[in-house]
Amino acid sequence: MTARLAALAAFATATLAAAYVIDVGGVLAGALLAGASLTARLPTNPLAPADPLVIGCTLGALILEAVVLGWHESSLRRVALGSDRSVRTDAMYTLIWASGLMTALGAVMTLGTASAVQGIIERWVGLGVFVSAPLSLAVPCGLIWMSFTSYWQHRLGHSRWLWPLHKSHHAPTSFAVLTVFRAHPIEATLSTIMDGVAFGVIGFSAEAMMLTMLISGVWPLFIHSNILSLGRLESLGVCTPNGHLVHHSVDPRHHDTNFGGLVNVWDRLFGTYVVPPADVAALEIGVDDSARVHNTERPFRAIWIQTMLWIDQVRQESRPAERALPFNRLRPRSPSTALRAASARREAAAL
Questions:
Q1: DSSP secondary-structure letter at 179?
Q2: pLDDT, tens digit, for every residue of 97-154?
Q3: How far apart are CA 24 and CA 41, in angstroms?
Q4: Distances (CA, A) of 59 to 79, 176, 222, 251
Q5: Statement to judge: residues 91 and 7 lie in one domain
Q6: 262 and 239 Cβ atoms separated by less than 8 Å
Q7: 3 state DSSP class of 330
Q8: In the Cβ-directed half-sphere of 309, how many Cα atoms lie within 13 Å?
Q9: In the chain, how many domains are there?
Q10: What DSSP character marks residue 339?
Q11: At residue 160, what are phi and psi to the nearest 5 degrees?
């Protein structure tokens, strides 16, 4: 246990250092482009890239799950003991997020698109519907709006265009609170951009956006936990770990179902909802990892391979034959056994 925690601490230090180096590089690049002094605005705090909100919410969720389930069944125990390779990999992705490196990698890999969009949104309030509304009205409406847009974002992640990136999140073979952090930097950045645009179109105050994002960001920690005793909330329209386990199931009957992350209302409305079975805990989850890409405690290697596979997929989808059939572009790909087999072969070839 001591050795495992020491290894995680070393990885955390390395990711934080990498995030800081990228941060400094970004400032230097901006100064050079603007013709400003190279040292005037250099960040001097190496801890600055770390996200205290992510750290605090994650620790809180881990402790809450341990209180509800007991130490023996908790994600916290599996992280500390390192008894599950999937959870160990989850922990490394969590550290990439908490250190700020995921955001930095996303910025580099998308050429700073998210920052540019954020700057535009800060100067644009769209329809301005909730800019002056009280938080008691703006936050609930923001949660409803975000649950709707997130539902379609998630469906887009399962499309032919983005599945090679989103596959990363489906790779864990067991649920843990930290599973929520399994993501590809490009997909994470695209999600940030789409969330910003969605809020900007309607027009919310900064406070309402912050509270909405906080609530909608904390809930996914819960639905990736092993607290399966609250499954009855599914009938009230609330997403629970029970319903989300179905979404991660390898059973073809469950593919492209239960996309909701906060409420399952949109799944019910658009015909993608599946009632969690009574033996939901017995469901097998994960993706074909015969090429040993995902649960190997080598997240940067996995990110690189997934990026190359995504670029290859975009090239294929951009061929003239595909452009002639636009309805094919958003056809779900994750339920296809043929696609999973082809993806596994491509991952093996990319090694």
A1: G
A2: 999 999 999 999 998 888 888 777 767 767 888 989 999 999 999 999 999 999 999 9
A3: 9
A4: 12, 13, 12, 32
A5: no
A6: yes
A7: coil
A8: 28
A9: 2
A10: H
A11: -60, -30
